[in-house]
């Protein structure tokens, strides 16, 4: 080794001191950067955890939304089936009621015809009875007239015989 110079020793000491200071600053900077790295790593972990939680929530919401869509479609389909079944029942009921109505109208028409026929028969029977009663009344009047004539003739004969019998006595 070459001999040390006096002036160089101070420089060496100053350089060593500067190196020590640089080393201390570098160590402090390394520690600071390590802490910053730990903080950033921790923030990154927290961000990933928050992102995972957010994604899980989004997946849960998406699943809930899909389930709700399926439920809505199922309910809609069920309601449509019920509506169509009810519509078919009502249409059948309407058709049955219309058929019943037609049958009842036919029955009413038949009954009305029968009532009309019976009323006509009754009127004809009443007319025939009235004619028969009039015939009997005329016959009775004729018999009354005949009986009256017969009684007069008998009375006239009895008066004539009485007058004859009185004239003979």
From TrEMBL:
Coiled coil: 80-128
Keyword Transferase: no
Localization (cell): Cytoplasm, Cytoskeleton, Flagellum axoneme
Superkingdom of source: Eukaryota
InterPro entries with a match to the protein in the record: DRC12-like (IPR033585)
Keywords: Cell projection, Cilium, Coiled coil, Cytoplasm, Cytoskeleton, Flagellum
Subunit (UniProt): Component of the nexin-dynein regulatory complex (N-DRC).
Function: Component of the nexin-dynein regulatory complex (N-DRC), a key regulator of ciliary/flagellar motility which maintains the alignment and integrity of the distal axoneme and regulates microtubule sliding in motile axonemes.
Family membership noted in the UniProt record: Belongs to the DRC12 family.
Protein name: Dynein regulatory complex protein 12
Organism: Chlamydomonas leiostraca
Taxonomic lineage: Eukaryota, Viridiplantae, Chlorophyta, core chlorophytes, Chlorophyceae
């Amino acid at each position: 080794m070459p001999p040390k110079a006096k002036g160089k020793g101070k420089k060496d000491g100053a350089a060593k001191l500067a190196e020590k200071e640089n080393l201390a600053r570098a160590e402090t900077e390394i520690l600071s950067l390590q802490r910053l790295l730990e903080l950033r790593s921790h923030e990154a972990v927290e961000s990933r955890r928050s992102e995972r939680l957010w994604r899980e929530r989004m997946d849960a919401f998406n699943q809930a939304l899909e389930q709700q869509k399926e439920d809505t479609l199922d309910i809609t389909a069920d309601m449509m089936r019920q509506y169509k079944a009810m519509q078919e029942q009502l249409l059948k009921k309407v058709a049955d009621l219309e058929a019943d109505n037609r049958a009842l109208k036919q029955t009413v028409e038949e009954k009305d015809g029968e009532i009309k026929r019976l009323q006509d028969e009754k009127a004809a029977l009443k007319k025939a009875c009235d004619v028969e009663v009039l015939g009997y009344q005329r016959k009775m009047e004729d018999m009354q007239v005949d009986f009256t004539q017969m009684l007069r003739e008998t009375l006239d004969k009895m008066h004539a015989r009485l007058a004859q019998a009185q004239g003979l006595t």
